[in-house]
Amino acid sequence: MKIVNTSVRKVDGIGVVTGNPAYTEDLILNNNVLTIKLLRSPHPFAKIKAIDTSIALKVPGVEAIYTHEDTPKTRFTLAGQSFPEPSPYDRRILDEYVRYVGDPVAIIAAEDERCAEKAMKLIKVQYEILEPILDFEKAIDSHIIIHPEEVHTNFEIGYERKRNIASKAYAEKPGVDEGFKNSDVILERTYYTQPQMHAMMETYRSYSYFDVNGRLTTVSSTQIPFHVRRHLARALEIPSSKIRVIKPRVGGGFGGKQTAVCEIYSAFVTLKTGKPSKIIYNRKETHTCTTTRYGMRLDVKIGADLEGNIKAIDINALSNAGAYGEHAPTVTSLVSYKTFPLYDTVPMRFNANIVYSNTMNAGAFRGYGATQGTFAVESIINELAHQLNLDPTEVRMKNLVEPGDGKYITSGDIKKCIEIGKEKFNWDERSKPREISPNKVRAAGMAVTMQGSGIAGIDTAAATIKLGDRGDFNLMVGVTDMGQGCDTVLTQIAAEVLEVPMDKITIHSADTDLSPYDPGAYASSGTYVTGNAVIIAANNMKEEILKGASKLFNIDINDIEYLGTSLKVVDKIITLEEFAQRSISFEGMNQITTTGTWGGETSPPPFIAGFAEVEVDTLTGEIAILDYLSVVDCGTHINPNLVKVQVEGGAVQGIGLALFEDIKYDRRGRVISDSLMQYKIPSRLDCKNIKVEFSNSYEKTGPFGAKSVGEVVVNTPAPAIADAVYNATKVRVRNLPVTSEKVLMGILNI
Amino acid sequence: MLLTTTINGRKKEILIKDDDYLLDVLRKEGYLSVKRGCDTGACGLCTVLLNGSPILSCSTLAARAQGKHISTIEHFPLEAKKFASFMTSEGAEQCGFCSPGFTLTVIAMIKELENPTDDEIMHYLNGNLCRCSGYVSQLRAIRNFMEDMKHENC
What we know:
The structure holds two protein chains of two kinds.
Chain A: H1 13-17, E1 34-40, E2 46-52, E3 62-66, E4 97-98, E5 104-110, H2 113-122, E6 124-129, E7 165-173, H3 176-181, E8 185-193, E9 205-210, E10 216-220, H4 225-236, E11 243-246, H5 263-273, E12 277-280, H6 283-288, E13 292-293, E14 295-304, E15 310-322, H7 328-331, H8 334-337, E16 348-356, E17 362-363, H9 370-388, H10 392-399, H11 414-425, H12 427-430, E18 434-437, E19 440-450, E20 460-467, E21 473-477, H13 486-498, E22 505-508, H14 526-552, E23 560-562, E24 566-569, E25 572-575, H15 576-584, E26 593-599, E27 607-617, E28 623-633, H16 640-659, E29 690-694, H17 717-729, H18 740-747
Parallel strand pairs in A: 1-12, 10-11, 13-17, 15-16, 21-22, 28-29
Antiparallel strand pairs in A: 1-5, 2-4, 2-6, 3-5, 7-16, 8-14, 9-10, 9-12, 14-15, 18-19, 19-27, 20-21, 20-26, 23-24, 24-25, 27-28
Helix pairs in contact in A: 4-5, 9-10, 9-17, 13-14, 16-17
Chain B: E1 2-7, E2 10-15, H1 22-28, E3 47-50, E4 53-56, E5 69-71, H2 77-90, H3 99-112, H4 118-124, H5 136-153
Helix pairs in contact in B: 2-3, 2-5
């Protein structure tokens, strides 16, 4: 049997492509569900002095309107993290303060969208308008304090409310100061990474109702059903045993749905009215009132000798949490967590402040801080290579980590990825700038990165397998497939261990009442963490089947052999179907169900070397990506096709970050890039040649040798493309995105 | 107003408001394959065919379908399933939310373009955004699909 390491089709693929109802909005069966709309603040910072809803409530069809006076006072975080969450508990369902343009002021529940919107216009709000902090670089020690209230934190995260600091981060590998002393060359540069929208195709949405047993049920497009249940319980001040969260198919997440953006509103309305309710964010709300990638300023200092041996790296970061601190202490830490081990012998120091400002709040996003760290560190290493007149690949070969037993990194080899990439990309030739017509120059750039596989020492997932009455299996997991294919990969793993064809296994995910606990789909953990839990559950199942058969047939367990779809009992073959039937019947009285739970001691990193070739029009600054190659080491693949498409998709999202994607605010703090017309994500014509090569390894702790791949794929395009553009034009853009405008201004020296 | 139209070959009379958009009417009538990705005609998810040509139902007033034929993906079970098999063979569908609108556009393209080059395919489909796949796997799926159709027609 060989089901893992093959490109089987996704278990839900045909259904979703042919348009079967599967997603949250498709599953709203009630015709009288209340529609929720949120009245949002037009001001970046204000205190609500009074709200008059009396006229709005008279609009026919309006069920209820809630303000901060009606919502519980308990503060919470919406970050999808294992309890106790490191993020500060700094928000309420509705607060008397609004802290960014779009912060909810009132919840309107009505029979349809029309009357909700009509009522929205009739709510009268008196604001005490406060001076905002729109520039996050001015947040620390400002006379403006964004969170005047006391905020609870579960850990010491460096929270300093009066200085607008949501968290601090520090990490050090000793020898930094000495390293600079021993350096022949020192560079100091400042880089900016912009906030980025997830821009998943299915916007945020949730639907709530009371079931027949009076339990509050919330159906949500989420990556974190169990965390959502806990957040709802805290925010609504009811026990989590009274809440059930169901996750149907998810139309993309990329980390956005690792924050419970909208569930509190439908759950609150249903709790208050007793009626089913739904909230569906439109595209404008999704692009103005949800979460973004953390925008950062990274001041980087690097020291090296003339041969390119790096002696020290010092990083100072300022990171913008926006109005609330979801994921504040954790995202920015990954700047160091994912760059320090890559250059493991280089002394490094990292110091960061994560600050509040009156902008849309930041949160989790594929790459989760590693993306920002990679841009800064890889960019300065490229700059160092240019300064020393060395090939950027050569500098990396001298300084990158080598795997070894007992080291942090035991499997996989980033240097091998570079070697493969150099050859496949024809690097030596293409890295040099080539003028192909009077105003078109081609050149290439490269960068490397790593990520992790799950959160070591914290996140723990479980999987449950049930043997059905006809000898087939149900696999129940709490991890969420948002397109990455973990339902398929986990089914493959279960089928491999149970030695049965995949169609003998039906996967169910996720429902907090039925699924075993899982933190959810984030931190690149689906295949690695939950996959390991599936292996344990499946091995337990085989053992239980043997035990059950031994009892049923009254035969020594050693005389029974498990053959997948059948059992060999002494010299007789009994089908698993027959055994299952008899086992659950009066004869056996044994419904076999097994569970496996697993959490990692380490988080083995996948690696990528990324290579980009660009063509720059020196008259306009226009940048075309001619070729993009990712050379990936993510262990041994469970499903090579799904891995490959993940890599391709991540590269394109990274190209978006590198070249176009930018959240624009007007002077008064309002997001003006509020549609897919103004906020440009890459289209088909923007990235035609995305290529993938693999450098295979075997990760001992991973399921069948696998490591993760979901996040690492997004990190390399920005530094690689920025350097390719520099090679072509000698214009160094250090603040993302690298737009044509910035390049042209650089060429014209303006 | 009373909208008289044909949806997936079946004549329908639907009471609509004058300013209802076609997307909302179709979803309300239970054609759940039609998805909304934006509200500005920018992403292509809500694509349906109006008299055989792809249109964006999020920015088309339902009243404009008066007397016309609307097709959603449910109208092409065979083609859709066949194309889906090529998509899934590549693993190109990922979250799948954009797939029905994309597949309908591919079905319209195949009828409209004869032996398109890669550039022509990309140009035709450029209005169909996808945030997951990176697009190149979709192109592989389309190429294989067209190749297979060619053999079938021989």
